[in-house]
Fold:
Amino acid sequence: MKKQELYKNITILIVTHNSERVIKPLLTLLDVNFPIFIVDNESKDKTKNILKKHNCVSKKIIFNQKGLGFGCAANIGLRKIKTKYVLLINPDTKINLNSISKLYEKTKIYPNAAILAPLHRNNDGKIHLPVRPFFYNKQKDLLNSNNFFGDCSVEYISGAIMLLDKKKISELGFFDEKFFLYYEDDDLCIKSRKNGFENVLLHDVVVDHFAGGSIGPPTIKNQWEKFFHMSFSRCYIEEKYFGVFKSIKISISIILKSAIKFFGHLVIFQFKKILKDIAYLYGALLFLLRIK
Structure:
């Protein structure tokens, strides 16, 4: 396959937010001939300067004046990109031309796939399957590294690295922008399957993903935002698919469990976990009160 076919059919889309630690290694590894579309969500570190200095054949950068959330920022790129496929990747990943080529070749084998994704290699060098059942599926995930021997159509695939069929994703309405952070990839995968498309995990493509690196080193602020939005979005996706009553029920459950954990961690002096407890409680409480 000629490289020109790849450059013509794939645009790389990256959403950044305080990603100075990881974005430069990613950009350095990427083939400069790919069109790259970057949406920055109000980075306060050196991310913007790094992005401006990066040279490639075709680059488009949008600097949002305020953080719009992952899904909303990704949608800005998805709506403007014209290529047949969009490679949506987190800043804390590393992907080379060979891996992109393998992903692209699989689109010819699986024409009904809206989403294709590789295996992940974690920080410790271990291979990870970035999949699980849908949030409402209580069945234990039976797919693991011991029984995964070939490409597989799955329910949920992590949004950290996705090769998206632009036409199919457009039919799905892109990401739901009511998810600020977390569960927007769950929702996209659910919509894909409900509309008759496939989400395919590939067994012979492995990409480095240093989970958590996209938002910078842990701080009180970004850890609060992480757990707050994780809680809020969990309540929202419950409401979206199962109605208000179910969302109220899970909101109250999260509030009660978080309160119990808070007092438990307080008693045994595990103060580092208290921030998570309060953020989870607050996210569910604000959802319950319809405040954000």
